[in-house]
Amino acid sequence: MAVELNHTIVASKDKVAGATFLAELLALPEPREFGPFQVVELAHGLSLDFASTDEDIHPQHYAFLVTEPEFDQIFARITDRGIRFWAEPHPPHGEGEINTRDGGRGLYFASPDGHYLEILTRPYGSGG
């Protein structure tokens, strides 16, 4: 069976701002409008479709597997923007630190809408 995740909807107070924040930080193509969504394209055909809402946003977790050079570039953008980051899934544990699980590097930070974002260079359980 070849089941792939194609897209998921990301709740945002401002879909354009939320999608632009993520695309700029991860150096992804500029978001595009599709119906009521602002779409951020990722690898393998996956997209995050940002939708504006006036309702309370329930934070979700989105983890992005990146290369070592990409990690350095994203980390530079995080620090340049003064975005708080931490090493553990639950802030503020390890605030200002990077984890080295499985012989790679990873960190967590929050989007403007309060979603928990993660960048990591090695999948969990991949050894090191």
For the structure shown, list the relevant keywords.
single chain; 128 residues; alpha/beta; 4-stranded mixed beta sheet; 2 helices; 8 strands; 20% helix; globular
Can you describe this structure in just a few lines?
With 128 residues, the chain is α/β, with parallel strands linked by helices. It is built from 2 helices and 8 strands.
- Beta-strand segment tally: 8
N→C terminal distance:
29 Å
Count of alpha/pi helices: 2
Give the ordered list of helices and strands.
EHEEEEHEEE
The biggest sheet amounts to: 4 strands, mixed
Whole-angstrom Rg: 15 Å
Fraction of helical residues: 10-25%
- Tell me the fraction of residues in β-strands, as a range: 25-35%
Strand order of the largest sheet: 1-4-3-2
What integer is the average pLDDT? Answer: 95
Give the low-pLDDT segments: none
Q: Name the structural class.
A: alpha/beta
- What best-fitting shape do the alpha-carbon axes yield? globular
Describe the protein.
The chain starts with 6 loop residues before the first strand and ends in an 8-residue tail after the last strand. The chain has helices at 15-26, 68-80, and strands at residues 7-12, 32-34, 37-41, 47-52, 61-65, 85-86, 106-110, 116-120. The longest helix has 13 residues, at 68-80. The strands form two sheets. It has a four-stranded mixed beta sheet, with helices on one face. It has a four-stranded mixed beta sheet with strand order 5-8-7-6, covered by helices on one side. It has 128 residues and is an alpha/beta fold. It contains two helices and eight strands.
